[in-house]
Task: inverse folding
């Protein structure tokens, strides 16, 4: 993502000359692709980590595999829902703040 962010500036016109819309569009698409991959892999890691932690905790307490899977699914869903809500709040307040600048 950092590389594509840097490349994006190279596609912009400087001093009223240069720049390439096709290059800008291509780099911007690549930037969004890498951002989506990063976001998706982060959400995947969160679910795997929460599932493992919850299953280990339930099994350490003497719970069954079925109970561990049920609690892991609930805890993982709650964590992902909370994290998504934080992201949605950021997606609301950041544009609102930038609109007032």
Result:
């Amino acid at each position: 993502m950092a590389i594509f962010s840097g490349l994006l500036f190279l596609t912009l016109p400087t001093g009223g000359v240069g720049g390439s819309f096709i290059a800008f569009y291509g780099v911007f698409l690549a930037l969004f692709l890498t951002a989506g991959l990063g976001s998706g892999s982060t959400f995947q890691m969160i679910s795997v980590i929460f599932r493992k932690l919850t299953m280990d905790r339930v099994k350490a307490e003497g719970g069954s595999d079925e109970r561990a899977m049920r609690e892991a699914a609930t805890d993982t869903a709650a964590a992902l829902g909370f994290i998504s809500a934080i992201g949605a709040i950021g997606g609301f307040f950041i544009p609102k703040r930038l609109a007032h600048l």
The radius of gyration is 21 Å. The chain has three helices and no strands. The chain has a mean pLDDT of 90.
